[in-house]
Amino acid sequence: MRSARHLAIFIIMAKVLVVEDDADTGATIKDLLVLESHTVEVVADGVEANNRLQQYDYDLVVLDWELPDTTGVDILKDYRSNRGKTPVLMLTGRSDFADKETGLDTGADDYLTKPFHPREFAARVRALLRRPQVMQSETVEAAGISLDGRTKRVTLSGKDLELRPKEFALLEFLMRHPNETFSADILLKRIWSSESEATESTVYSFMSLLRKKLSEEGLPEVIRTVYGRGYRFEAGGDAAGF
């Protein structure tokens, strides 16, 4: 029988958009999410929120109800009407049931009233990210590589492999999508914050460093360049934990 540890479920590192006009609250939320190893972007108004939602993909949106130029409900209506499917956690100071009903009926996946306890916020985020499309096993193994998303440890043929955070994130993303090809642009949008100054050249550099570290340990080339299309992790038939 497999141990409880191997049966555990963890959430893959997520890209989260926080829409919150109060600077202190936004900073607190960002800190809580970063502690969970998520990539976080914070915006303070509806115009920028709509721009981000139109241009980028996110795994979760934390959306304040009251904004200086619009409401979270209006943003959510537009997002859902444009077939946006990302889970949305609505934040508000309103505690009336009718307001909660409005938020949920508009398309929010959960509703949290301010002020909230940090542990409750973190628990609700984990619950939303445990949706089937982002639910992953704790450890993924393929081609002699074992990657633990909880401890951020990577081993190659039983030996620890030291990776920088972005190298780890790239390897994890590719290993959890085996035999799929991703362009540098897609990897840039999935791994880096849209607020960063990273470019596709940054992706090329980190990918080169990652492949060098893997090859130095004697691993056959498992991250393939598909010319004109991008990169692919070739797991073969031994991938497990997806």
Strands, count = 14
Q: Please mark out the parts with pLDDT under 50 across 5 or more consecutive residues, or reply none.
A: 1-10
Helix content: 25-40%
Strand content is 15-25%
List the total number of helices: 9
| CATH homologous group name of the largest domain | Response regulator
* CA-atom Rg in angstroms: 19 Å
Entry keywords:
5-stranded parallel beta sheet, 242 residues, 39% helix, Rossmann fold, alpha/beta, 4-stranded antiparallel beta sheet, 2 domains, Arc Repressor Mutant, subunit A, 22% strand
Tell me about this structure.
By secondary structure, this protein is of the alpha/beta class. The chain folds into 2 domains: 4-129, Response regulator (Rossmann fold, 3-Layer(aba) Sandwich), CATH 3.40.50; 139-233, Winged helix-like DNA-binding domain superfamily/Winged helix DNA-binding domain (Arc Repressor Mutant, subunit A, Orthogonal Bundle), CATH 1.10.10. It has helices at 4-7, 23-35, 46-55, 72-81, 97-106, 118-129, 165-175, 184-191, 200-216; strands at residues 9-11, 15-19, 39-43, 60-64, 88-92, 110-113, 135-137, 139-142, 145-148, 153-156, 159-160, 181-182, 223-226, 230-233. The protein has a 5-stranded parallel beta sheet with strand order 3-2-4-5-6, sandwiched between helices. A 4-stranded antiparallel beta sheet has the order 8-9-10-11, covered by helices on one side. A hairpin with a 3-residue loop joins strand 13 (223-226) and strand 14 (230-233). The longest helix has 17 residues, at 200-216. The model is unreliable at 1-10 (pLDDT under 50).
